Amino acid sequence: MMERMGYGLILVDVQRAMLEGQDAIAGAAGFRDLLSGLLDAARDADAAIVHVKNDGRAGDPDEPGTPGWQLVFTPLPGEPVIRKDAANAFESNPALADVLRAMGVDTVVVAGLQSEHCVQATAVGALERGFDVIVPAGAHATYDDGEPAADIVERVTLELVAAGVEVPELDELSFD
Description:
Layout: E1 7-12, H1 16-19, H2 28-44, E2 48-54, E3 81-84, H3 89-92, H4 96-102, E4 107-113, H5 115-128, E5 132-134, E6 140-141, H6 149-163
Parallel strand pairs: 1-2, 1-4, 2-3, 4-5, 4-6
């Protein structure tokens, strides 16, 4: 069995537009607390952390420079913030894989918003670039969109598992 070099946490689109105010997802406060705990666990383990910030179009709640575009959690020194304008953070930032490897990462934990868009695309993008990928159960969320958000999350989780992503329960995840 190959030994893992190190873990990295990729927080995808954890921006105010989706977790605060009128445009927030259902259950935003609880989801924010869950992500805060995940971020704290990664920091406590000295895992690499990358914050991904979506650049919405003009008029979108996450349009660059607007309050909704701001990150919910303040990055600490050494925690890069990357911007993206495509669902897959690796597609928008071709150097991201190299940055993660330079940080000693071979296993990425992906969490954030929205399940069926940026979380799924970024997780699959990490797989395509040779990383082991973990998307903890409950660590991604979305809006109702033609079907209830819970059904979308469940469907995406099954699709991620089928693609080769590990989906442990959150309390089973360790960055060590």
